[in-house]
Amino acid sequence: MARIAGVNIPTQKRVIIALTYITGIGPKKASEICEKVGIPAERRVHQLTDAEVARIRETIDQGYTVEGDLRRQTAINIKRLMDLGCYRGLRHRKGLPVRGQRTHTNARTRKGKAVAIAGKKQATR
């Protein structure tokens, strides 16, 4: 099993698909990396030599922000918004959707599980 940028890459998948398991690398960047290193698109991870894996690892280390560094950078950006007290920062602080989605219904991913309000359904006529 190949280990690149601290992530175990699945061995049976094609290299381009397997590289997307690394945070910060999508299909476009994965195909770009394979092109730089000179690996054909249909090649599978278990068919790679140690030298090719090392070249992929070097290419990612030199030119891309991935995994821990990327997560840290994102966390710092969010913390900066929260410290500024701008609208987006306040939404992050309250745990509400940041990008203008409605919250009257939906938004359960950000708000968490719905909590019942005691005595809400007692309006009987």
From TrEMBL:
One of its GO terms (molecular function) is structural constituent of ribosome. Keywords: Ribonucleoprotein, Ribosomal protein, RNA-binding, rRNA-binding, tRNA-binding. The keyword Heme does not apply. Gene3D superfamilies: 1.10.8.50, 30s ribosomal protein s13, domain 2 (4.10.910.10). InterPro entries: Rbsml_uS13_C, Ribosomal_uS13, Ribosomal_uS13-like_H2TH, Ribosomal_uS13_bac-type, Ribosomal_uS13_CS. One of its GO terms (biological process) is translation. Coiled coil: none annotated. Pfam families: Ribosomal_S13 (PF00416). The keyword RNA-binding applies. GO terms for cellular component: cytosol; small ribosomal subunit. SUPFAM superfamilies: S13-like H2TH domain (SSF46946). Located at the top of the head of the 30S subunit, it contacts several helices of the 16S rRNA. In the 70S ribosome it contacts the 23S rRNA (bridge B1a) and protein L5 of the 50S subunit (bridge B1b), connecting the 2 subunits; these bridges are implicated in subunit movement. Contacts the tRNAs in the A and P-sites. Belongs to the universal ribosomal protein uS13 family. NCBIfam families: uS13_bact. Part of the 30S ribosomal subunit. Forms a loose heterodimer with protein S19. Forms two bridges to the 50S subunit in the 70S ribosome. This is Small ribosomal subunit protein uS13. It comes from Dongia mobilis.
